[in-house]
Amino acid sequence: TVFEPASDIDAALGASGGTTENLFKLANRPAVRLSVGGGFVEVAQDRGTTEHSGGVVWETSFFLVRYLERHILPGMQTACIRRKLRAVELGSGCGLLGLALARLGCDIVLTDQPSALANLRTNARTFEASSVSGKSNGSVQVMPLDWAKKEDIIAARKKGPFDLVVASDVVFATRLVEPLLRTIAALLEDASGMDAACWLCLQQRDPDAHALLLRTAPNFFSVHERSFAGLKGFEAAVELECLILELRLLSPS
Asked: How far apart are CA 149 and CA 183, in angstroms?
């Protein structure tokens, strides 16, 4: 298929008109592309789904990719020069965030609820088929992960230990906050001695869930809120009031 420039996330955010309107147009396109790691990642959107919220690319995934690419991964990759960083994404949806990390050289495990896996697996196969020979891409695996299912969490932990747990826009219901936090904690638990952290990029989708997350997370983690303010290239993230949370597992008392 011929790629449409309007489907490029950077182009959409740099276009004239309001940021929200341009992102809405992007969400209605069949596929979205992101230039990253000297190549690109293109994911198909499942715009007709009503079973889950991962049918379209949320802008927070783009902002987190760019933040990690510019401010976090270079230092981590320098420290881990003898191996690839290992990452797991929660609520992967279309897979843009995790596949971009693979393009940047991380081995990635993409996870979501079973109803979202068909499109996610398709996008993972497309990524692998488009990988350029000689580029140091990471490996990609896809698996189900229901945060309330102990067996799913155990299976995901077996893919680690993980240097990075990442997720974007996964806080939209109060009933999911504690299962999310417990899942993150379990996935970081095997990373002793590693500079492991969870990186969440969020917009306030549900005020009660957002407040509950900020109130509950310190029970499990050292929480550092990072702002996009003043960072070049993140003006849209500031406009949309996005934030990043860095979560590091508390040491056992």
From this structure: 9
* pLDDT score at 253: 61
Counting Cβ atoms within 10 Å, is residue 131 exposed (0-12), middle (13-18) or buried (19+)?
middle
Q: What is the rounded distance in angstroms from the CA atom of residue 89 to the CA atom of residue 108? A: 7
| Measured distance CA(4)–CA(26) in Å, rounded | 11
Mean pLDDT by 10 residues, the chain (253 residues): 59 79 85 91 83 78 96 91 93 96 96 95 93 75 97 97 96 95 96 85 93 97 95 92 96 73
Q: Where are the strands (E) in the chain, listed by range?
A: 31-36, 39-44, 86-89, 107-112, 140-144, 164-168, 197-202, 221-226, 243-249
DSSP 50-74: -S-S-SS--HHHHHHHHHIIIIIHH
